[in-house]
Design brief:
By secondary structure, the chain is of the alpha/beta class. It contains nine helices and ten strands. The strands form four sheets. It has a three-stranded antiparallel β-sheet with strand order 5-9-6. Strands 7-8-10 form a three-stranded mixed β-sheet, covered by helices on one side. It has a two-stranded antiparallel sheet with strand order 1-2.
Amino acid sequence: MGSTRLPGKAMLPLAGKPLTYRLLERVKRARMIQDIVLAVPDGPKEQPLREVAAALDIGCIDAYPTDENDLVTRHLEAAEWAQADLIVRIPGDNPCVDQAYIDQAIRTYLHEPHLYYSNTTDLCGDVWLDGIGAEVFSLSRLQWLDAKLGKGDVYYREHPHAWFLDHRLYDLHQADYRLDVNTQEDYEYVKDIFEACYRVRPEFTSADVVQYLDHRDQVHG
């Protein structure tokens, strides 16, 4: 709820429900995930998010009462709470996350040797979309990163994926369409997608999004 660029974005409406509700609703359709945990900061301002989790019968923990920008600790506490040995991270600003890409990320991690795997930006047909998949890593890998960084490495503790990227453990492709919500402009963009696609099919896919955006771009030149 304390986003600096777009305060309260987690509760902004998309097709009649809060952004976080729509995101979790889509995550629940993934078949490879065994448990879902919503990790929120400690404090009363996050109560609306706890209520969203309760409405969807999803676990919710106050995962970082000290520094809410320390994502390494946040992931560790969520994983330990859920007794998970494999962590599938869905960024909270990706309301268009696609169940098929979540499942694909997990399958790839399990069947091919990876220290870390991410398809948050991935191909849909011949179009690169940002905001549709997941990051996958083991609890032991995260514990190793936690010990390696120490508490003083503020940047990598806030952006653990950047450590894996900077050390060439995965490649990040330039997206043709960004579907994450960080600013008011981003929100209006994704809100338009939901209004168009959700009305036709609530379980809309990334392919549906690409089809709509291509059509919209053609209409508006």
